[in-house]
Structures are given as structure tokens and as C-alpha cells.
């Protein structure tokens, strides 16, 4: 559709030579909390937004055309979506819902498999510049519907954006999505995820984090006929809804990234405690106690103890529900420890705490302080390579976008030419049939169509009388 809009004023041969590129001042804060100002690649970013392709359309008109295109053909092209994303600098805040609707429509299009990194990157940066980055969190959670799978560079910028505003809750939620995708391989985004989760843990109230107590629904149940009963399934990963569990599992994953260090052991212990995996938590403490030079911070025990005290106890004598009444909450309830198990965990935790203290393996420093120190010391080391990659990707995306647009213009012109040829062929065929009809009119009149029924001839009076006599003789013989 972008091609149809642009083809009226440009051709594929002149795209690269267009002058008077659209330019707009982009408001980017010069203040940085963890990442330097250079990480945002402001000059390269402005240059990418000045692509001549974008100057040929206006956002509002283009979005309406995209919607109409989807309603007619159930498809939006990748180059259309990319142009729309880069024009979001013109958006009004009231347009956000309409834009998100277009993003979901695009996700259902064949061209969105997969969604290009350039589209996701631009959407994230535009939302940040319009100060509506918090709207990205639901889009990331519904990634299968929206296609918002951020790359490490955009996700780092997004977390840094929230950290700058001291919005550690949203920054931690971005880190949760990294954990769910099980991708903590990029050093910059991993360090920012660590910082976000640790700062949020310090800021949050344990009472607010504690999962809501699972209770049976009161009232009379309503039974309806169904073909089959689906047994509820809880995968303990994608199905996690509790904020405490998400934070705990993220800290545990981060701890595995810094294995064999005091910080790594502490993160795993605290994370497993918040995640209510107390058996695994105690096992990590045992491994630290048996290891030669491993150690753990003193404050980890307070987090585990608080999580254990606030954990809901499962009633082992609770009667089983009927199959049709089971929900996913019942599956989560089965994973909870009983009151007796909680008492055993408390005793083992105190014993391990005393053992580690006696062996001098408890470091009198907060693991949160270790995490912040690590982030501050290592983050700057990874910035130069990230900046270089981002700048290179801007250039690559521009070349790919131009190529896609040229291909779309070519296909549009080809389809228009084919439609024109087919129209002329049809007109010629109709004219030929008309001319041939008059030429062969006499022959057509003489030809008796075989499929027409023969004309019925009525019998005369004598024939009818003979037939009646024949019928009477036949009846007489019977």
C-alpha cells in the first residue's frame, strides 16, 4: 500500500536520489542514569528518521489506508508497517489505541512472520519519546498477539528509560519478559535487568508481593453440558501470574548467569525463596556449605525467612474437587508446602545458617549492594560494541526498507499492467464474438441444436380411434 501511495510521486529508480528529506527534531533526554547518552545513538537515529521515504506520507491518512487495506485483503505489508512505525513521531497520544490495533492486525498478516526487528525497535523508541512507554508492557506480555519481541538494544533502552524515572516496577516487568523468553545472554540487558530487579526488591513491600491466598469460590456452582472436560494445566513458567514468583524466578535465572560468585549464590537463594521453591533453596545453601570457597551474603536469609513465613500453607486433608470444578488455581495450590513442611524448612534453614556462619561463609554485605556495584563497574565496558551494532543496523534497515519498497512498487506496477492487459483481452474477445456472430448468422439459423426437444405432432382422428380399439382388445384378452 505504501507503494501505491508513493508510486504516484516516485518511481523505483528515483527513490535513492530524492532530495528534501523530512526532518523533525526528536526530543531525547541528554541525562542518563546508567547508560551514557551515546548509547541512544541520537545522531544516527535522527538520520534514519530522515529517510526520504517517510516524507511522502502523513501518519493519519496512512493509518486509515492501512486499516482499509487490511479490511479488504486481510493483510498489511512489512514495509507499510515500518513506514507507519517511523511516522509515529507525528502521533497524538489519543492515537495510541488505534496504532496498537494496527499492530495486532499486522501480526495476523503473512508478512509478520516474524515481525522485523526494525519495526519493534522503532515502536519502542517512539513510545519512549512520547512518554507512554508503560503501554509497551501489556504489548510485550501479549507478544504472540502483538509480535512485540524486543531485541537486546531496544530492551536495554527501555529499562534505562524506566530506571531514569526511578520506575523500577516497570523496569523489573521488562526483565520478567526476558526471563520468560529465557534469554539473558546479552550483557548490557542482563546487567540492567539485574539492577531493575534488585532496586524493585528493595523498594517493594513484601506484603504487596505476597501472592493472594488461594480460596475456593463460594456460591452454588452451575453445571453445563460439554463434549469433554479439559484438565487444567500449569506449566510454572508462562502461566506464572504472581509478581513475587516472577521476580523470584528472574532473580534465580540471573543468579545462574553469575554462578560460582557470592552474588550468584545469593541471587539464587533469594530468588528460589521468593519463588516458593524452598527445597531447591536449601539445596543451594547446602552446596555453598560443602564448597571450598563459596560464600553468601547475610541479608539473603531474611528474604527467605520472610517468604517462608508468608507462604500459604496447603491443607493435606482438603478433599479433592470434582473434575469439572478444577481450575489452574487448584494446580498451583498443590505446589504449596503444608504447615508441617514449612516447619521442617525453617529448622533446616536455621541449621544451614548456623553452619555457614561457623564456616565463615556468610559475608556481612548486602547482595543488593554487590549487584549495584557490579552493574556500575561493568556496564560501560559493553557500550561501545552495542553502539557500533546499533548504528550499523540503522544503515542495514534503511537499505532493506528501500529494497522492500522497490519490490512492492514493482509488484504493484506489474499487477496494474496485468489487470490492464486482461481488461483489453476481454474487450477484444467481446468484439470478436460480436463480429463473428453477424458473419455466421445465417449458418447459426440453419443449425438445429441437438439438445432441443423435438416438436410434438398431434395424432389425427383415425389414429386416435385405432389406438382406442387396440387398448380395448388388450383389456379383453386380460
TrEMBL record:
Repeat keyword on record: no
InterPro entries hit by this protein: mS27/PTCD2, Ribosomal_mS27
One annotated Gene Ontology cellular component of this protein: mitochondrion
Key word Transferase present: no
Signal peptide range in chain numbering: none
Subcellular location: Mitochondrion
Name by which UniProt lists this protein: 28S ribosomal protein S27, mitochondrial
Organism: Pomacea canaliculata (Golden apple snail)
Amino acid at each position: 500500500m505504501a507503494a501505491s501511495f508513493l508510486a504516484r510521486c516516485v518511481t523505483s529508480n528515483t527513490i535513492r536520489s530524492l532530495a528534501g528529506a523530512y526532518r523533525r527534531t526528536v526530543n531525547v533526554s541528554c541525562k542518563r542514569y546508567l547508560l551514557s547518552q551515546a548509547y541512544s545513538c541520537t545522531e544516527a537515529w535522527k538520520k534514519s528518521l530522515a529517510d526520504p521515504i517517510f516524507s511522502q506520507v502523513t501518519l493519519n491518512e496512512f493509518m486509515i489506508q492501512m486499516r482499509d487495506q487490511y479490511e479488504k485483503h486481510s493483510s498489511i505489508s512489512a514495509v507499510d508497517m515500518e513506514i507507519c512505525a517511523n511516522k509515529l513521531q507525528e502521533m497524538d497520544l489519543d492515537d495510541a489505541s488505534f496504532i496498537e490495533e494496527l499492530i495486532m492486525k499486522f501480526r495476523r498478516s503473512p508478512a509478520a512472520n516474524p515481525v522485523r526487528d526494525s519495526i519493534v525497535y522503532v515502536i519502542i523508541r517512539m513510545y519512549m519519546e512520547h512518554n507512554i512507554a508503560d503501554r509497551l508492557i501489556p504489548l510485550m506480555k501479549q507478544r504472540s498477539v502483538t509480535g512485540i519481541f524486543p531485541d537486546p538494544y531496544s530492551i536495554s533502552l527501555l529499562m534505562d528509560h524506566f530506571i531514569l524515572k526511578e520506575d523500577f516496577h516497570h523496569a523489573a516487568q521488562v526483565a520478567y519478559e526476558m526471563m520468560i523468553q529465557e534469554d539473558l545472554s546479552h550483557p548490557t540487558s542482563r546487567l540492567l535487568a539485574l539492577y531493575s530487579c534488585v532496586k524493585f526488591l528493595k523498594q517493594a513491600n513484601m506484603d504487596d508481593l505476597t501472592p493472594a491466598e488461594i480460596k475456593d469460590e463460594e456460591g452454588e456452582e452451575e453445571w453445563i453440558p460439554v463434549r469433554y472436560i479439559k484438565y487444567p494445566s500449569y506449566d510454572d513458567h508462562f502461566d506464572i501470574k504472581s509478581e513475587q514468583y516472577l521476580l523470584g524466578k528472574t532473580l534465580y535465572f540471573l543468579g545462574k548467569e553469575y554462578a560460582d560468585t557470592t552474588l550468584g549464590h545469593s541471587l539464587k537463594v533469594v530468588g528460589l525463596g521468593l519463588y516458593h521453591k524452598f527445597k531447591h533453596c536449601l539445596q543451594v545453601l547446602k552446596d555453598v556449605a560443602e564448597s571450598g570457597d563459596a560464600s553468601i551474603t547475610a541479608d539473603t536469609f531474611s528474604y527467605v525467612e520472610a517468604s517462608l513465613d508468608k507462604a500459604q500453607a496447603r491443607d493435606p486433608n482438603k478433599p479433592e474437587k470434582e473434575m469439572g470444578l478444577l481450575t489452574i488455581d487448584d494446580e498451583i495450590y498443590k505446589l504449596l508446602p503444608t504447615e508441617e513442611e514449612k516447619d521442617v524448612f525453617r529448622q533446616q534453614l536455621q541449621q544451614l545458617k548456623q553452619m555457614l556462619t561457623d564456616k565463615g561463609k556468610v559475608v556481612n554485605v548486602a547482595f543488593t549492594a554487590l549487584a549495584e556495584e557490579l552493574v556500575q563497574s561493568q556496564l560501560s565496558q559493553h557500550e561501545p560494541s552495542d553502539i557500533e551494532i546499533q548504528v550499523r543496523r540503522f544503515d542495514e534497515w534503511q537499505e532493506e526498507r528501500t529494497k522492500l519498497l522497490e519490490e512492492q512498487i514493482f509488484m504493484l506496477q506489474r499487477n496494474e499492467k496485468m489487470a490492464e492487459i486482461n481488461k483489453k483481452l476481454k474487450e477484444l474477445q467481446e468484439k470478436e464474438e460480436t463480429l463473428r456472430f453477424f458473419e455466421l448468422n445465417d449458418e447459426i439459423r440453419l443449425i438445429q441444436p441437438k439438445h432441443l426437444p423435438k416438436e410434438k405432432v398431434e395424432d389425427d382422428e383415425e389414429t386416435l380411434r385405432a389406438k382406442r380399439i387396440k387398448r380395448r382388445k388388450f383389456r379383453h384378452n386380460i
